[in-house]
Amino acid sequence: MRIEHLAIWTKDLERLKTFYMTYFGATAGNKYENAAKQFESYFLAFESGARLELMRRPDIPETANDPIHQFLGLIHVAFSIGSEKEVDALTARLKQDGYLVLDGPRRTGDGYYESCVLDPDGNRLEITT
């Protein structure tokens, strides 16, 4: 068994698609649109085979959660990008481009090398080796 994909609601489908393509090398499939439900989405594929679905529908409310603090439920998506040097470089690039870096790069107590950033919608992303 494997997890087939994760899905994220967004208010700006194109902005989020561009973010994951630019910083994480995602490839976008064709845009799916269902006019009757006012629903549209993209599936993004990553080199590893992992997939992320970005979805938009105008009636989905904004979250009341504060993305900087922890909360119950899904808390982050982790991307393994290869090396400490690559973690450092991508984290610096995201920070330079105005994205909030919450933590790191650092070595965790259990030996991981990682940083934590927010995507344009405030979703936590862990960048690790």
TrEMBL record:
SUPFAM superfamilies recorded: Glyoxalase/Bleomycin resistance protein/Dihydroxybiphenyl dioxygenase (SSF54593)
Gene3D superfamilies linked to this entry: 2,3-Dihydroxybiphenyl 1,2-Dioxygenase, domain 1 (3.10.180.10)
Domain VOC per the UniProt entry, residue ranges: 2-129
Signal peptide start-end: none
InterPro entries cross-referenced by the UniProt entry: Fosfomycin_Res_Enzymes, Glyas_Bleomycin-R_OHBP_Dase, Glyas_Fos-R_dOase_dom, VOC_core
Protein's name in the database: Putative Glyoxalase family protein
The organism of origin for this protein: Candidatus Moduliflexus flocculans
